[in-house]
Amino acid sequence: MASTTYDCSDPDDRTAGLAAAARAVRAGRLVVLPTDTVYGIGCDAFSATAVAALLKAKNRGPDMPVPVLVGSWTTIDGLVLGVPKTARDLIEAFWPGGLSIVLPHAPSLAWDLGRTRGTVMLRMPLHPVALELLRDVGPMAVSSANVSGQAPASDAAEAEAQLGASVSVYLDGGPSGEPVASTVVDLTGDVPRVLREGAVSTAEVAEVLGREVAVA
């Protein structure tokens, strides 16, 4: 099936593109979308077949689980075992934005994001196109839009050059700016741990939490 690219700087094309992307996600197909860090390749988080197709498109195995993007603060309540105060504080301070949090996922969820060991990495991106799509279709499994080992795409053309026809819909939101990854904070243990420092500094995380944080 041929891919279609939509120019989200054009209001009509943006509307058509978001509708096409929503249809693709609901049908278990892959889409590329702009985020506030780098471009992402995404799919329905609850479709194991779609997540497997995403990993295949990236030439990546299940040993690196796929993060989940959400369109609102409250979406995570149904996805995790519980939302501790540390998570609430970080969400209020940095969402939408460049901070991902790792929490135990709700055991009732039927999803397969890779070898997650019972956890899920969640983020709410600061990008209007991404947020509109997420609010329409719900949580999406989203990874950087690149083939494993190559540079993450900072625009839709770079993403298409790497991923080609494996993706049904490309949403072109212009250049993503500096390709800075999100900061990842693991909240599954007694002490918050920064697994990767990116857009948000470890010092900023510690300041919001009012405590020391470990660095992996």
TrEMBL record:
It catalyses: L-threonine + hydrogencarbonate + ATP = L-threonylcarbamoyladenylate + diphosphate + H2O. It comes from the Bacteria. Its main location: cytoplasm. It is found in: Cytoplasm. The keyword ATP-binding applies. It is an enzyme of class 2 (transferase). Its EC number is 2.7.7.87. Residues 15-200 form the YrdC-like domain. Belongs to the SUA5 family. NCBIfam families: L-threonylcarbamoyladenylate synthase. This is L-threonylcarbamoyladenylate synthase. It comes from Pseudonocardia humida.
